[in-house]
Specification:
By secondary structure, this protein is an all-alpha fold. Helices cover 62% and strands 1% of the residues. It has 21 helices and 2 strands. A two-stranded antiparallel ribbon has the order 1-2. The radius of gyration is 27 Å and the shape is elongated.
Length: 474
């Protein structure tokens, strides 16, 4: 404690940037390798570092810039090691510090770039935000909708960090991973909470250009950050000038769901290691993107037809129900939006409905039925405009009934399809053996065999063990 107090006194009494830099260097042992954050805070070390970070950088004083960078780096190190940030500062104090660090940190980053310093300043700021956001927003979700946080500045920082040329230290995989990880943890709750800032997004698209944005988002996705990418695209989709490149030309929706299926096949490959964001929130985010994008109807139709035809969107919706373990009105509402869009475009295109939608719907229906027999599940019957509350009183229906209603809405003769299937089953060479579904994907060689992929599972096979159907399921 004595050393920490002496450090604070020396930093506050000296007016020389060079002297203060030397003081920080002299007390380096206080910060590594396992600093006592509680003691440093009680001695005022965090406060004095924060004060230095906010010092103006007017003029071309290189030692002043070096001092601010050193203070920011040490502040970042201490914050990133905090297990319980709210025990160090209360919520309001953290909100004030976050707003200040974002504003002053971005100016510091610009000064560092002009001085030729390739230091990932924005990545440091994101590390601070990631730690604080996780602590504050987990325990105080209402803060997201308060005016205590400058969300527009935070989003501007995120865009600058992701799309800027210099500050990325793009060749360093550790810095890149840190940036992607922080972006995910900060952006996901923003998009999930419906916090969109089209003016900030429109300005980012103008500054960096759609081409570079698409390239960076693709890199973001290729490194396995599916949830984070979905949140970035959800923000970008609010601006019409991004639609053509992202969806019509770049077909990012196809790339996104193809990565989703890769993740399902090899979940250990995803660096998004939050255990709570493993399955249902992942499906939620992927489907949410499709349902909430502010797109013209012609582009919506292109996206839906692409995803149904190439990326098995109908199977994805059915697969969601197999894992639907809790009654989540919000997810049910999103699924209804997707269902209605698929149904609308299917009714408008007879060939699409007959050749693509019908067999896909029926294939997934067998999987939904068999899974429901093994694990009966109900979902809220909600409309796209349903307002969910903590204690939702929506009527509950079974997943099978929901799926049959989906078929009716598409315009399929569900009863006739079921009758044709039963007739075909009676004429099969092994009609006494009950139907098995080893993989719910229609095009998989293991569909209908009850077997897992012995050597090379298909890209849609996700490893679930689905029990054989009873004769009543046929």
């Amino acid at each position: 404690m004595a050393q920490a107090s002496r450090l604070v006194e020396a930093l506050r009494t000296s007016n020389s940037s060079t002297s203060r830099l030397q003081t920080l260097s002299r007390y380096e042992k206080l910060f590594a390798p396992n600093p006592n954050i509680r003691r440093l805070h009680d001695a005022g070390v965090l406060d004095v570092l924060f004060e230095i970070v906010l010092e103006p950088l007017d003029g071309e004083n290189p030692s002043r810039l070096d001092l601010v960078l050193a203070a920011l780096d040490k502040f970042k190190t201490l914050v990133s090691l905090m297990e319980h940030p709210l025990r160090v500062y209360p919520v309001n104090t953290w909100c004030t510090k976050v707003n200040s660090i974002v504003e002053s940190g971005c100016k510091t980053a610009e000064k560092a770039e002009k001085a030729g310093k390739r230091i990932p300043v924005r990545a440091w700021i994101l590390t601070i935000l990631e730690t604080v956001c996780h602590a504050v927003f987990t325990k105080h979700p209402g803060i997201f909708h308060s005016t205590r946080l400058n969300h527009a500045s935070i989003l501007d920082l995120l865009y600058t960090t992701l799309f800027h040329r210099v500050d990325q230290a793009w060749g360093d995989p550790n810095v890149r991973r840190s940036i992607f990880k922080s972006l995910s943890k900060i952006l996901i709750p923003h998009s999930a909470s419906g916090l969109f800032f089209p003016d900030i997004t429109r300005d980012a698209i103008r500054r960096y250009g759609p081409k570079r944005i698409l390239e960076r988002c693709t890199a973001f996705l290729n490194h396995g950050f599916i949830l984070g990418t979905t949140s970035v695209i959800a923000q970008l989709s609010q601006v019409s000038t991004a639609h053509e490149l992202l969806f019509a030309t770049g077909r990012f929706h196809v790339t996104l769901l193809s990565k989703y299926w890769e993740w399902i096949k090899n979940p250990d490959d995803s660096p998004e290691d939050d255990p709570e964001s493993r399955l249902q929130p992942l499906i939620d985010s992927s489907i949410r993107l499709i349902s909430t994008c502010q797109l013209p109807e012609s582009l919506q139709k292109t996206i839906i037809m692409d995803l149904v035809t190439e990326q098995d969107l109908i199977f994805l919706v059915g697969r969601t129900f197999v894992h639907f373990t809790v009654n989540v009105c919000d997810l049910a509402k999103i699924l209804v939006i997707i269902r209605k869009k698929i149904a609308k475009f299917s009714r408008e295109d007879a060939a699409f409905r007959t050749k693509i939608v019908k067999p896909s719907w029926f294939s997934a229906s067998q999987w939904v039925k068999i899974a429901a027999r093994s694990k009966p599940c109900q979902v809220p019957e909600v409309s796209p405009f349903h307002e969910c509350s903590e204690r939702c009183s929506s009527k509950m229906i079974s997943t099978v009934d929901w799926w049959l209603a989906f078929g009716d809405e598409i315009g399929l003769d569900v009863a006739r399809i079921e009758a044709e299937h039963q007739a075909a089953a009676q004429q099969a060479p092994f009609k006494d053996e009950p139907l098995k579904v080893g993989c719910g994907w229609l095009k998989c060689g293991f569909h209908g065999t009850g077997k897992k992929g012995a050597t090379k599972p298909c890209a849609r096979y996700s490893g679930e063990t689905i029990p054989p159907a009873s004769p009543d399921d046929n």
